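step 4 of 6: structure.
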Amino acid sequence: MTDFLQLFFSGLATGSIYALAALGFTLLWQASGTINFAQGEFVMLPAFMMLAFLSAGLPLLASFLAACVAASFLLGWAFKRGVVDPLFKYGMMPIVVATIGLSIAMRSGVRAGYSAEAYPFPSLFADKLFNIAGVTITLSDVGTFVFAMALVLCTQAFLARTVTGRAMQAVAQNTESASVLGINVPRMIFYTFAINAVLAVAAALLVTPTYLAKFDMGESLGTKAFFAAIIGGFNNSRGALLGGLLVGVSENLAAAYISPAYKDAVALIIFMVVILFKPQGLLGRKEERKV
Amino acid sequence: MKKSTFALLAGAAVLLIAPQFLKNYGIYLLSYWLVFVIATMGLNLTVGYAGQKSLGHAAFFGIGAYTVAILMKAGISFWLGLPAAALICFVVGVLLGFPALRVQTIYLAFATLGFNTAIWLVMRNEEWLTGGTFGINNIARPKLPGLNLDSNLGYYYFVLALTALLAALLWGLLRSPWGKAFTALRDNPIRAESLGVDIRSYTLLSFAIGAAYAGIAGALFASLVQFIDPAPFTVGASIMMYLMVVVGGPGYFFGPMVGAAVGVILPEWLRFAQAWYLFVFGSAVVLLMIWLPGGLLSIPDRVRARWHAREASAARIAAANQATGA
Protein backbone atom coordinates (compact mmCIF):
# COMPACT_ATOMS: atom_id res chain seq x y z
CA MET A 1 0.00 0.00 0.00
CA THR A 2 2.79 2.45 0.88
CA ASP A 3 4.46 1.56 -2.43
CA PHE A 4 1.24 2.30 -4.19
CA LEU A 5 0.85 5.69 -2.50
CA GLN A 6 4.44 6.63 -3.21
CA LEU A 7 4.03 5.77 -6.89
CA PHE A 8 0.73 7.58 -6.94
CA PHE A 9 2.21 10.82 -5.59
CA SER A 10 5.25 10.88 -7.85
CA GLY A 11 2.87 10.11 -10.73
CA LEU A 12 0.83 13.16 -9.77
CA ALA A 13 3.96 15.32 -10.02
CA THR A 14 4.79 14.05 -13.53
CA GLY A 15 1.14 14.27 -14.49
CA SER A 16 0.89 17.90 -13.46
CA ILE A 17 3.75 18.72 -15.85
CA TYR A 18 1.91 16.89 -18.64
CA ALA A 19 -1.15 18.92 -17.66
CA LEU A 20 0.76 22.20 -18.10
CA ALA A 21 1.84 21.32 -21.63
CA ALA A 22 -1.60 19.87 -22.42
CA LEU A 23 -3.36 23.01 -21.17
CA GLY A 24 -1.37 25.26 -23.50
CA PHE A 25 -2.16 22.84 -26.28
CA THR A 26 -5.94 22.94 -25.73
CA LEU A 27 -5.93 26.74 -25.33
CA LEU A 28 -4.23 27.13 -28.70
CA TRP A 29 -6.68 24.74 -30.27
CA GLN A 30 -9.71 26.54 -28.84
CA ALA A 31 -8.56 30.03 -29.70
CA SER A 32 -7.12 29.51 -33.16
CA GLY A 33 -7.67 25.93 -34.31
CA THR A 34 -3.92 25.40 -34.17
CA ILE A 35 -2.65 21.94 -33.35
CA ASN A 36 0.90 22.47 -32.32
CA PHE A 37 3.07 19.46 -33.05
CA ALA A 38 6.07 21.41 -31.79
CA GLN A 39 4.63 21.63 -28.25
CA GLY A 40 7.42 19.43 -26.86
CA GLU A 41 10.05 21.62 -28.54
CA PHE A 42 8.27 24.66 -27.05
CA VAL A 43 9.30 23.18 -23.69
CA MET A 44 12.81 22.23 -24.81
CA LEU A 45 13.79 25.66 -26.13
CA PRO A 46 12.96 27.60 -22.91
CA ALA A 47 15.02 25.06 -20.96
CA PHE A 48 18.05 26.14 -23.00
CA MET A 49 17.04 29.80 -22.71
CA MET A 50 16.99 29.50 -18.93
CA LEU A 51 20.37 27.77 -18.97
CA ALA A 52 21.73 30.67 -21.00
CA PHE A 53 20.34 33.23 -18.55
CA LEU A 54 21.68 31.18 -15.63
CA SER A 55 25.16 31.11 -17.10
CA ALA A 56 24.89 34.88 -17.64
CA GLY A 57 24.66 35.11 -13.85
CA LEU A 58 20.93 35.54 -13.25
CA PRO A 59 19.35 33.62 -10.36
CA LEU A 60 16.91 30.80 -11.26
CA LEU A 61 13.67 32.73 -10.74
CA ALA A 62 14.94 35.76 -12.66
CA SER A 63 16.01 33.47 -15.54
CA PHE A 64 12.53 31.96 -15.45
CA LEU A 65 10.92 35.39 -15.80
CA ALA A 66 13.37 36.44 -18.51
CA ALA A 67 12.67 33.21 -20.37
CA CYS A 68 8.92 33.89 -20.07
CA VAL A 69 9.40 37.24 -21.81
CA ALA A 70 11.68 35.80 -24.48
CA ALA A 71 9.35 32.85 -25.08
CA SER A 72 6.22 35.02 -25.31
CA PHE A 73 7.97 36.92 -28.05
CA LEU A 74 9.58 34.03 -29.91
CA LEU A 75 7.15 31.14 -29.33
CA GLY A 76 4.14 33.42 -28.98
CA TRP A 77 4.28 36.44 -31.25
CA ALA A 78 6.81 35.27 -33.83
CA PHE A 79 5.24 31.80 -34.07
CA LYS A 80 1.79 33.30 -34.57
CA ARG A 81 2.87 35.89 -37.13
CA GLY A 82 5.33 33.72 -38.99
CA VAL A 83 3.64 30.32 -39.13
CA VAL A 84 0.03 30.34 -37.96
CA ASP A 85 -1.33 33.55 -39.50
CA PRO A 86 -0.27 32.82 -43.11
CA LEU A 87 -1.62 29.25 -42.89
CA PHE A 88 -4.81 29.91 -40.99
CA LYS A 89 -6.94 30.21 -44.13
CA TYR A 90 -5.97 26.76 -45.43
CA GLY A 91 -7.46 24.90 -42.47
CA MET A 92 -5.95 22.56 -39.94
CA MET A 93 -3.64 20.17 -41.78
CA PRO A 94 -1.16 22.66 -43.30
CA ILE A 95 -0.59 24.09 -39.81
CA VAL A 96 -0.04 20.59 -38.46
CA VAL A 97 2.51 19.85 -41.20
CA ALA A 98 4.21 23.22 -40.68
CA THR A 99 4.51 22.66 -36.92
CA ILE A 100 5.94 19.19 -37.61
CA GLY A 101 8.52 20.88 -39.80
CA LEU A 102 9.09 23.46 -37.10
CA SER A 103 9.67 20.78 -34.46
CA ILE A 104 12.25 19.04 -36.68
CA ALA A 105 13.95 22.38 -37.37
CA MET A 106 14.02 23.38 -33.68
CA ARG A 107 15.30 20.01 -32.51
CA SER A 108 18.04 19.69 -35.09
CA GLY A 109 18.83 23.41 -34.90
CA VAL A 110 19.64 23.08 -31.20
CA ARG A 111 21.55 19.87 -31.87
CA ALA A 112 23.65 21.26 -34.71
CA GLY A 113 23.97 24.83 -33.50
CA TYR A 114 24.48 24.26 -29.81
CA SER A 115 25.10 20.76 -28.61
CA ALA A 116 23.84 17.18 -28.61
CA GLU A 117 24.76 16.71 -24.95
CA ALA A 118 22.38 16.55 -21.99
CA TYR A 119 22.86 19.39 -19.51
CA PRO A 120 22.02 19.30 -15.79
CA PHE A 121 19.49 21.87 -14.66
CA PRO A 122 19.10 23.27 -11.12
CA SER A 123 15.92 22.30 -9.30
CA LEU A 124 13.61 24.90 -7.86
CA PHE A 125 13.21 22.77 -4.74
CA ALA A 126 15.70 21.54 -2.16
CA ASP A 127 16.60 17.86 -2.04
CA LYS A 128 14.43 16.86 0.89
CA LEU A 129 12.29 13.87 1.82
CA PHE A 130 9.07 13.82 3.79
CA ASN A 131 7.90 10.76 5.65
CA ILE A 132 4.20 10.68 6.35
CA ALA A 133 2.90 7.44 7.88
CA GLY A 134 5.60 5.40 6.18
CA VAL A 135 5.07 6.99 2.75
CA THR A 136 8.15 8.80 1.48
CA ILE A 137 7.51 11.83 -0.69
CA THR A 138 10.19 14.13 -2.07
CA LEU A 139 9.89 17.87 -1.68
CA SER A 140 10.41 18.30 -5.41
CA ASP A 141 7.39 16.07 -6.16
CA VAL A 142 5.20 18.07 -3.80
CA GLY A 143 6.60 21.37 -5.03
CA THR A 144 6.18 20.44 -8.70
CA PHE A 145 2.61 19.36 -8.12
CA VAL A 146 1.69 22.50 -6.13
CA PHE A 147 3.43 24.87 -8.54
CA ALA A 148 1.86 23.29 -11.62
CA MET A 149 -1.60 23.10 -10.05
CA ALA A 150 -1.38 26.73 -8.96
CA LEU A 151 -0.47 27.74 -12.50
CA VAL A 152 -3.28 25.72 -14.08
CA LEU A 153 -5.83 27.09 -11.62
CA CYS A 154 -4.55 30.66 -12.10
CA THR A 155 -4.91 30.29 -15.87
CA GLN A 156 -8.43 29.00 -15.46
CA ALA A 157 -9.34 31.77 -13.02
CA PHE A 158 -7.91 34.29 -15.46
CA LEU A 159 -10.02 32.86 -18.27
CA ALA A 160 -13.19 32.69 -16.20
CA ARG A 161 -13.00 35.80 -14.01
CA THR A 162 -11.24 38.63 -15.82
CA VAL A 163 -12.64 40.72 -18.66
CA THR A 164 -9.68 39.84 -20.89
CA GLY A 165 -10.03 36.16 -20.08
CA ARG A 166 -13.73 36.15 -20.88
CA ALA A 167 -13.04 37.98 -24.12
CA MET A 168 -10.52 35.27 -24.98
CA GLN A 169 -13.12 32.60 -24.31
CA ALA A 170 -15.62 34.48 -26.44
CA VAL A 171 -13.13 34.46 -29.31
CA ALA A 172 -12.57 30.74 -28.81
CA GLN A 173 -16.30 29.99 -28.91
CA ASN A 174 -17.38 32.21 -31.77
CA THR A 175 -14.88 34.45 -33.50
CA GLU A 176 -17.45 36.30 -35.58
CA SER A 177 -19.78 37.33 -32.78
CA ALA A 178 -16.76 38.25 -30.67
CA SER A 179 -15.53 40.68 -33.29
CA VAL A 180 -19.05 42.07 -33.77
CA LEU A 181 -19.09 42.75 -30.02
CA GLY A 182 -15.97 44.87 -30.39
CA ILE A 183 -13.44 42.40 -29.05
CA ASN A 184 -10.01 42.79 -30.60
CA VAL A 185 -9.79 39.24 -31.96
CA PRO A 186 -6.15 39.18 -33.18
CA ARG A 187 -4.98 40.53 -29.84
CA MET A 188 -6.92 37.92 -27.86
CA ILE A 189 -5.46 35.19 -30.05
CA PHE A 190 -1.99 36.61 -29.43
CA TYR A 191 -2.65 36.49 -25.65
CA THR A 192 -3.49 32.81 -26.00
CA PHE A 193 -0.21 32.19 -27.78
CA ALA A 194 1.67 34.10 -25.09
CA ILE A 195 -0.03 32.10 -22.32
CA ASN A 196 0.88 28.89 -24.13
CA ALA A 197 4.51 30.04 -24.26
CA VAL A 198 4.56 30.91 -20.54
CA LEU A 199 3.00 27.56 -19.60
CA ALA A 200 5.69 25.87 -21.69
CA VAL A 201 8.44 27.77 -19.87
CA ALA A 202 6.92 26.71 -16.54
CA ALA A 203 6.79 23.10 -17.71
CA ALA A 204 10.46 23.40 -18.71
CA LEU A 205 11.36 24.79 -15.28
CA LEU A 206 9.70 21.83 -13.56
CA VAL A 207 10.62 18.99 -15.88
CA THR A 208 14.22 19.77 -16.84
CA PRO A 209 15.82 18.94 -13.45
CA THR A 210 14.74 15.30 -13.96
CA TYR A 211 14.74 15.04 -17.80
CA LEU A 212 17.96 17.11 -18.26
CA ALA A 213 18.18 19.78 -20.97
CA LYS A 214 18.66 17.95 -24.26
CA PHE A 215 17.65 18.68 -27.84
CA ASP A 216 15.23 15.74 -27.96
CA MET A 217 13.73 16.12 -24.48
CA GLY A 218 10.49 17.45 -25.95
CA GLU A 219 9.73 14.41 -28.07
CA SER A 220 8.02 12.20 -25.50
CA LEU A 221 6.71 15.14 -23.49
CA GLY A 222 4.92 16.58 -26.51
CA THR A 223 3.26 13.25 -27.33
CA LYS A 224 2.12 12.73 -23.75
CA ALA A 225 0.67 16.23 -23.69
CA PHE A 226 -1.35 15.51 -26.85
CA PHE A 227 -2.71 12.29 -25.44
CA ALA A 228 -3.50 13.95 -22.12
CA ALA A 229 -5.37 16.75 -23.90
CA ILE A 230 -7.42 14.37 -26.01
CA ILE A 231 -8.14 11.96 -23.14
CA GLY A 232 -9.44 14.81 -21.02
CA GLY A 233 -11.39 16.43 -23.81
CA PHE A 234 -9.95 18.61 -26.50
CA ASN A 235 -12.39 21.45 -26.16
CA ASN A 236 -12.29 21.73 -22.39
CA SER A 237 -9.41 23.21 -20.43
CA ARG A 238 -10.28 21.25 -17.29
CA GLY A 239 -9.91 18.15 -19.41
CA ALA A 240 -6.20 18.85 -19.91
CA LEU A 241 -5.72 18.78 -16.14
CA LEU A 242 -7.62 15.53 -15.70
CA GLY A 243 -5.92 13.92 -18.70
CA GLY A 244 -2.44 14.96 -17.58
CA LEU A 245 -2.84 13.60 -14.07
CA LEU A 246 -4.47 10.41 -15.34
CA VAL A 247 -1.62 9.72 -17.76
CA GLY A 248 1.09 10.59 -15.21
CA VAL A 249 -0.33 8.38 -12.46
CA SER A 250 -1.23 5.37 -14.58
CA GLU A 251 2.15 5.45 -16.30
CA ASN A 252 3.91 5.32 -12.96
CA LEU A 253 1.72 2.51 -11.66
CA ALA A 254 1.98 0.51 -14.87
CA ALA A 255 5.77 0.84 -14.91
CA ALA A 256 5.94 -0.59 -11.38
CA TYR A 257 3.24 -3.26 -11.49
CA ILE A 258 3.00 -4.35 -15.10
CA SER A 259 6.14 -3.74 -17.17
CA PRO A 260 8.61 -0.84 -17.17
CA ALA A 261 9.46 -1.57 -20.80
CA TYR A 262 5.92 -0.77 -21.91
CA LYS A 263 5.50 2.38 -19.81
CA ASP A 264 5.25 4.58 -22.88
CA ALA A 265 2.32 2.57 -24.24
CA VAL A 266 0.07 3.40 -21.27
CA ALA A 267 -1.00 6.81 -22.58
CA LEU A 268 -1.84 5.19 -25.91
CA ILE A 269 -4.00 2.47 -24.35
CA ILE A 270 -6.01 4.97 -22.28
CA PHE A 271 -6.33 7.13 -25.38
CA MET A 272 -7.59 4.23 -27.51
CA VAL A 273 -10.15 3.21 -24.88
CA VAL A 274 -11.35 6.80 -24.52
CA ILE A 275 -11.77 7.45 -28.24
CA LEU A 276 -13.57 4.12 -28.65
CA PHE A 277 -16.21 4.89 -26.05
CA LYS A 278 -16.19 8.67 -25.75
CA PRO A 279 -14.44 10.22 -28.77
CA GLN A 280 -14.95 13.74 -27.47
CA GLY A 281 -12.82 12.98 -24.40
CA LEU A 282 -13.77 12.46 -20.76
CA LEU A 283 -14.92 16.03 -20.15
CA GLY A 284 -15.44 17.16 -23.74
CA ARG A 285 -18.58 18.31 -25.50
CA LYS A 286 -19.73 16.60 -28.62
CA GLU A 287 -19.10 18.63 -31.75
CA GLU A 288 -21.63 18.64 -34.54
CA ARG A 289 -20.52 18.34 -38.13
CA LYS A 290 -21.43 21.16 -40.45
CA VAL A 291 -22.34 20.52 -44.06
CA MET B 1 2.25 10.95 -78.54
CA LYS B 2 0.84 12.76 -75.52
CA LYS B 3 3.22 14.83 -73.47
CA SER B 4 2.55 12.88 -70.27
CA THR B 5 3.14 9.51 -71.96
CA PHE B 6 6.42 10.84 -73.31
CA ALA B 7 7.51 12.01 -69.85
CA LEU B 8 6.58 8.62 -68.42
CA LEU B 9 8.62 6.74 -71.02
CA ALA B 10 11.57 9.08 -70.55
CA GLY B 11 11.43 8.55 -66.77
CA ALA B 12 11.31 4.78 -67.22
CA ALA B 13 14.27 4.91 -69.60
CA VAL B 14 16.31 6.93 -67.11
CA LEU B 15 15.52 4.47 -64.32
CA LEU B 16 16.53 1.55 -66.56
CA ILE B 17 19.80 3.08 -67.78
CA ALA B 18 20.91 5.08 -64.74
CA PRO B 19 22.52 2.15 -62.84
CA GLN B 20 25.00 1.66 -65.72
CA PHE B 21 26.56 5.01 -64.80
CA LEU B 22 26.47 4.54 -61.04
CA LYS B 23 28.84 2.92 -58.59
CA ASN B 24 27.65 0.13 -56.34
CA TYR B 25 26.58 2.49 -53.56
CA GLY B 26 24.62 4.67 -55.97
CA ILE B 27 22.66 1.62 -57.16
CA TYR B 28 22.03 0.61 -53.56
CA LEU B 29 20.75 4.12 -52.85
CA LEU B 30 18.41 4.02 -55.86
CA SER B 31 16.93 0.72 -54.61
CA TYR B 32 16.57 2.33 -51.17
CA TRP B 33 14.70 5.19 -52.81
CA LEU B 34 12.39 2.81 -54.70
CA VAL B 35 11.54 0.99 -51.47
CA PHE B 36 10.44 4.30 -50.00
CA VAL B 37 8.54 5.11 -53.19
CA ILE B 38 6.48 1.93 -52.69
CA ALA B 39 5.84 2.75 -49.03
CA THR B 40 4.87 6.36 -49.70
CA MET B 41 2.68 5.37 -52.68
CA GLY B 42 0.60 3.45 -50.16
CA LEU B 43 0.61 6.41 -47.79
CA ASN B 44 -0.36 8.71 -50.66
CA LEU B 45 -3.44 6.55 -51.25
CA THR B 46 -4.40 6.87 -47.57
CA VAL B 47 -3.44 10.52 -47.11
CA GLY B 48 -3.53 12.12 -50.54
CA TYR B 49 -6.48 10.34 -52.15
CA ALA B 50 -8.66 9.21 -49.24
CA GLY B 51 -7.73 12.14 -46.97
CA GLN B 52 -6.97 10.07 -43.85
CA LYS B 53 -4.17 11.52 -41.72
CA SER B 54 -2.01 8.54 -40.90
CA LEU B 55 1.16 9.06 -38.85
CA GLY B 56 1.94 5.40 -38.27
CA HIS B 57 3.11 4.22 -41.66
CA ALA B 58 6.59 3.22 -40.44
CA ALA B 59 4.93 0.71 -38.11
CA PHE B 60 3.52 -1.17 -41.12
CA PHE B 61 6.85 -0.79 -42.88
CA GLY B 62 8.46 -2.39 -39.83
CA ILE B 63 5.88 -5.16 -39.55
CA GLY B 64 6.58 -6.06 -43.17
CA ALA B 65 10.34 -6.04 -42.61
CA TYR B 66 10.17 -8.16 -39.47
CA THR B 67 7.68 -10.59 -41.01
CA VAL B 68 10.06 -11.40 -43.84
CA ALA B 69 13.13 -11.46 -41.61
CA ILE B 70 11.55 -13.76 -39.04
CA LEU B 71 10.04 -16.09 -41.65
CA MET B 72 13.33 -16.31 -43.56
CA LYS B 73 15.20 -17.09 -40.34
CA ALA B 74 12.70 -19.89 -39.83
CA GLY B 75 13.67 -21.22 -43.26
CA ILE B 76 10.60 -20.05 -45.15
CA SER B 77 11.17 -18.68 -48.65
CA PHE B 78 11.10 -14.96 -49.42
CA TRP B 79 8.44 -15.63 -52.04
CA LEU B 80 6.08 -16.72 -49.28
CA GLY B 81 7.31 -14.04 -46.88
CA LEU B 82 6.54 -11.18 -49.27
CA PRO B 83 2.81 -11.90 -49.67
CA ALA B 84 2.65 -12.79 -45.98
CA ALA B 85 4.05 -9.36 -45.12
CA ALA B 86 1.46 -7.66 -47.34
CA LEU B 87 -1.36 -9.77 -45.94
CA ILE B 88 -0.40 -9.29 -42.29
CA CYS B 89 -0.13 -5.52 -42.79
CA PHE B 90 -3.50 -5.49 -44.52
CA VAL B 91 -5.11 -7.37 -41.62
CA VAL B 92 -3.40 -5.22 -38.97
CA GLY B 93 -4.48 -2.15 -40.95
CA VAL B 94 -8.10 -3.31 -40.80
CA LEU B 95 -7.83 -4.14 -37.10
CA LEU B 96 -6.29 -0.76 -36.26
CA GLY B 97 -8.45 1.18 -38.67
CA PHE B 98 -11.69 -0.24 -37.33
CA PRO B 99 -11.57 1.62 -33.99
CA ALA B 100 -9.28 4.44 -35.15
CA LEU B 101 -11.39 5.46 -38.16
CA ARG B 102 -14.34 6.12 -35.88
CA VAL B 103 -12.54 9.38 -35.33
CA GLN B 104 -11.28 11.63 -38.06
CA THR B 105 -8.43 13.96 -38.95
CA ILE B 106 -6.27 14.80 -36.01
CA TYR B 107 -7.58 12.05 -33.73
CA LEU B 108 -6.67 9.51 -36.35
CA ALA B 109 -3.21 11.07 -36.60
CA PHE B 110 -2.67 10.55 -32.88
CA ALA B 111 -4.15 7.06 -32.86
CA THR B 112 -1.79 5.96 -35.62
CA LEU B 113 1.12 7.76 -33.96
CA GLY B 114 0.43 5.90 -30.72
CA PHE B 115 0.10 2.62 -32.61
CA ASN B 116 3.54 3.21 -34.07
CA THR B 117 5.00 3.72 -30.59
CA ALA B 118 3.39 0.49 -29.41
CA ILE B 119 4.73 -1.52 -32.35
CA TRP B 120 8.16 -0.01 -31.85
CA LEU B 121 8.08 -1.01 -28.16
CA VAL B 122 7.22 -4.58 -29.16
CA MET B 123 10.13 -4.64 -31.64
CA ARG B 124 12.51 -3.36 -28.99
CA ASN B 125 11.32 -5.38 -26.01
CA GLU B 126 10.29 -8.80 -27.34
CA GLU B 127 13.79 -10.16 -27.84
CA TRP B 128 12.64 -13.76 -28.37
CA LEU B 129 10.82 -12.67 -31.51
CA THR B 130 12.62 -9.64 -32.91
CA GLY B 131 16.10 -9.78 -31.38
CA GLY B 132 15.40 -6.54 -29.49
CA THR B 133 17.89 -3.74 -30.03
CA PHE B 134 20.39 -6.22 -31.53
CA GLY B 135 18.02 -6.74 -34.41
CA ILE B 136 18.14 -9.53 -36.95
CA ASN B 137 21.17 -9.81 -39.22
CA ASN B 138 22.26 -11.79 -42.26
CA ILE B 139 18.86 -11.64 -43.93
CA ALA B 140 19.34 -13.31 -47.29
CA ARG B 141 18.36 -11.84 -50.64
CA PRO B 142 15.65 -13.77 -52.47
CA LYS B 143 16.59 -16.30 -55.17
CA LEU B 144 15.21 -15.86 -58.66
CA PRO B 145 16.24 -18.04 -61.59
CA GLY B 146 17.90 -15.99 -64.34
CA LEU B 147 18.64 -12.91 -62.23
CA ASN B 148 21.34 -12.62 -59.59
CA LEU B 149 19.61 -10.74 -56.76
CA ASP B 150 22.67 -10.95 -54.50
CA SER B 151 24.26 -8.17 -56.51
CA ASN B 152 22.94 -4.68 -55.91
CA LEU B 153 22.30 -4.26 -59.63
CA GLY B 154 20.12 -7.36 -59.88
CA TYR B 155 18.19 -6.43 -56.77
CA TYR B 156 17.67 -2.92 -58.13
CA TYR B 157 15.98 -4.25 -61.28
CA PHE B 158 13.88 -6.59 -59.17
CA VAL B 159 12.69 -3.73 -56.94
CA LEU B 160 12.15 -1.52 -60.00
CA ALA B 161 9.95 -4.15 -61.64
CA LEU B 162 7.92 -4.54 -58.46
CA THR B 163 7.58 -0.76 -58.09
CA ALA B 164 6.28 -0.51 -61.65
CA LEU B 165 3.84 -3.35 -61.02
CA LEU B 166 2.54 -1.80 -57.78
CA ALA B 167 2.30 1.64 -59.39
CA ALA B 168 0.27 0.16 -62.26
CA LEU B 169 -2.02 -1.57 -59.75
CA LEU B 170 -2.55 1.68 -57.87
CA TRP B 171 -3.17 3.53 -61.14
CA GLY B 172 -5.83 0.99 -62.08
CA LEU B 173 -7.38 1.22 -58.63
CA LEU B 174 -7.59 4.99 -58.80
CA ARG B 175 -9.21 4.89 -62.28
CA SER B 176 -11.85 2.44 -61.09
CA PRO B 177 -15.17 3.50 -59.50
CA TRP B 178 -13.56 2.45 -56.22
CA GLY B 179 -10.82 5.02 -56.65
CA LYS B 180 -13.33 7.72 -57.53
CA ALA B 181 -15.11 6.99 -54.26
CA PHE B 182 -11.82 7.53 -52.38
CA THR B 183 -11.37 10.99 -53.87
CA ALA B 184 -15.03 11.87 -53.33
CA LEU B 185 -14.49 10.99 -49.70
CA ARG B 186 -11.51 13.29 -49.36
CA ASP B 187 -13.08 16.24 -51.11
CA ASN B 188 -16.38 16.23 -49.30
CA PRO B 189 -17.08 13.34 -46.93
CA ILE B 190 -20.59 14.47 -46.09
CA ARG B 191 -21.62 14.82 -49.73
CA ALA B 192 -20.04 11.46 -50.53
CA GLU B 193 -21.99 9.86 -47.72
CA SER B 194 -25.25 11.40 -48.86
CA LEU B 195 -24.60 10.00 -52.35
CA GLY B 196 -24.42 6.53 -50.90
CA VAL B 197 -20.66 5.99 -50.50
CA ASP B 198 -20.15 3.82 -47.46
CA ILE B 199 -17.57 6.02 -45.74
CA ARG B 200 -16.53 3.52 -43.14
CA SER B 201 -15.63 0.64 -45.40
CA TYR B 202 -13.95 2.84 -48.02
CA THR B 203 -11.73 4.63 -45.52
CA LEU B 204 -10.91 1.31 -43.91
CA LEU B 205 -10.02 -0.14 -47.28
CA SER B 206 -7.82 2.78 -48.29
CA PHE B 207 -6.05 2.57 -44.95
CA ALA B 208 -5.50 -1.19 -45.19
CA ILE B 209 -4.29 -1.07 -48.81
CA GLY B 210 -1.87 1.70 -47.85
CA ALA B 211 -0.66 -0.53 -45.01
CA ALA B 212 -0.18 -3.47 -47.37
CA TYR B 213 2.00 -1.32 -49.65
CA ALA B 214 4.10 -0.39 -46.62
CA GLY B 215 4.35 -4.08 -45.75
CA ILE B 216 5.68 -4.96 -49.22
CA ALA B 217 8.14 -2.07 -49.02
CA GLY B 218 9.27 -3.28 -45.58
CA ALA B 219 9.83 -6.80 -46.90
CA LEU B 220 11.98 -5.43 -49.75
CA PHE B 221 13.79 -3.17 -47.28
CA ALA B 222 14.75 -6.05 -44.97
CA SER B 223 16.17 -7.99 -47.86
CA LEU B 224 17.94 -4.94 -49.29
CA VAL B 225 19.81 -3.82 -46.16
CA GLN B 226 20.06 -7.42 -44.85
CA PHE B 227 20.00 -6.23 -41.25
CA ILE B 228 17.08 -4.76 -39.35
CA ASP B 229 16.70 -3.33 -35.86
CA PRO B 230 13.89 -1.15 -34.44
CA ALA B 231 15.63 2.14 -35.34
CA PRO B 232 14.19 2.75 -38.85
CA PHE B 233 10.61 2.17 -37.68
CA THR B 234 10.14 4.93 -35.08
CA VAL B 235 7.44 7.57 -34.94
CA GLY B 236 10.04 9.93 -36.39
CA ALA B 237 10.27 7.69 -39.49
CA SER B 238 6.48 7.78 -39.87
CA ILE B 239 6.48 11.54 -39.66
CA MET B 240 9.23 11.62 -42.27
CA MET B 241 7.16 9.45 -44.63
CA TYR B 242 4.17 11.70 -44.10
CA LEU B 243 6.32 14.71 -44.92
CA MET B 244 7.61 12.96 -48.06
CA VAL B 245 4.02 12.65 -49.29
CA VAL B 246 3.23 16.25 -48.38
CA VAL B 247 6.42 17.63 -49.93
CA GLY B 248 5.95 15.70 -53.17
CA GLY B 249 2.30 16.68 -53.41
CA PRO B 250 -0.48 14.67 -51.76
CA GLY B 251 -2.99 13.37 -54.29
CA TYR B 252 -0.50 13.60 -57.18
CA PHE B 253 0.28 10.16 -58.57
CA PHE B 254 4.01 10.91 -58.94
CA GLY B 255 4.19 12.88 -55.69
CA PRO B 256 5.77 10.01 -53.72
CA MET B 257 8.59 9.65 -56.28
CA VAL B 258 9.55 13.30 -55.80
CA GLY B 259 8.90 13.27 -52.04
CA ALA B 260 10.92 10.10 -51.44
CA ALA B 261 13.78 11.57 -53.48
CA VAL B 262 13.77 14.64 -51.24
CA GLY B 263 13.66 12.45 -48.13
CA VAL B 264 16.14 9.73 -49.18
CA ILE B 265 18.49 10.87 -51.95
CA LEU B 266 18.88 14.56 -51.09
CA PRO B 267 20.32 13.89 -47.58
CA GLU B 268 23.05 11.79 -49.24
CA TRP B 269 24.01 14.58 -51.60
CA LEU B 270 24.00 17.08 -48.77
CA ARG B 271 26.13 14.84 -46.61
CA PHE B 272 28.67 17.56 -45.94
CA ALA B 273 25.93 19.51 -44.19
CA GLN B 274 24.70 16.44 -42.28
CA ALA B 275 24.17 18.16 -38.95
CA TRP B 276 22.28 21.07 -40.48
CA TYR B 277 20.41 19.08 -43.11
CA LEU B 278 17.42 18.29 -40.91
CA PHE B 279 17.26 21.88 -39.76
CA VAL B 280 17.10 23.06 -43.35
CA PHE B 281 14.60 20.33 -44.21
CA GLY B 282 12.30 21.26 -41.30
CA SER B 283 12.43 24.95 -42.14
CA ALA B 284 11.83 24.16 -45.81
CA VAL B 285 8.69 22.24 -44.87
CA VAL B 286 7.38 25.28 -42.99
CA LEU B 287 8.10 27.56 -45.96
CA LEU B 288 6.64 25.05 -48.40
CA MET B 289 3.40 25.00 -46.42
CA ILE B 290 3.24 28.78 -46.50
CA TRP B 291 4.05 29.24 -50.19
CA LEU B 292 3.13 25.97 -51.82
CA PRO B 293 0.67 24.00 -49.70
CA GLY B 294 -0.01 21.65 -52.65
CA GLY B 295 3.54 20.24 -52.63
CA LEU B 296 6.30 20.35 -55.26
CA LEU B 297 4.23 18.74 -58.00
CA SER B 298 1.67 21.51 -57.76
CA ILE B 299 4.21 23.90 -59.31
CA PRO B 300 3.26 23.08 -62.95
CA ASP B 301 -0.44 23.48 -62.13
CA ARG B 302 0.27 26.80 -60.49
CA VAL B 303 2.36 28.07 -63.35
CA ARG B 304 -0.33 26.97 -65.78
CA ALA B 305 -3.04 28.67 -63.72
CA ARG B 306 -1.05 31.88 -63.60
CA TRP B 307 -0.34 31.70 -67.32
CA HIS B 308 -4.04 31.19 -68.07
CA ALA B 309 -4.92 34.09 -65.81
CA ARG B 310 -2.41 36.31 -67.57
CA GLU B 311 -3.65 35.23 -70.98
CA ALA B 312 -7.24 35.82 -69.95
CA SER B 313 -6.51 39.27 -68.59
CA ALA B 314 -4.53 40.15 -71.75
CA ALA B 315 -7.52 39.07 -73.81
CA ARG B 316 -9.80 41.11 -71.59
CA ILE B 317 -7.64 44.22 -71.99
CA ALA B 318 -7.50 43.69 -75.75
CA ALA B 319 -11.29 43.33 -75.86
CA ALA B 320 -11.72 46.44 -73.72
CA ASN B 321 -9.36 48.42 -75.98
CA GLN B 322 -11.26 47.29 -79.03
CA ALA B 323 -14.54 48.29 -77.40
CA THR B 324 -13.29 51.78 -76.55
CA GLY B 325 -11.59 52.13 -79.95
CA ALA B 326 -14.75 51.32 -81.83
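step 5 of 6: annotate
 - The CA atoms of residues 232 and 282 of chain A lie 5 Å apart.
 - Chain A has eleven helices and two strands.
step 6 of 6: archive
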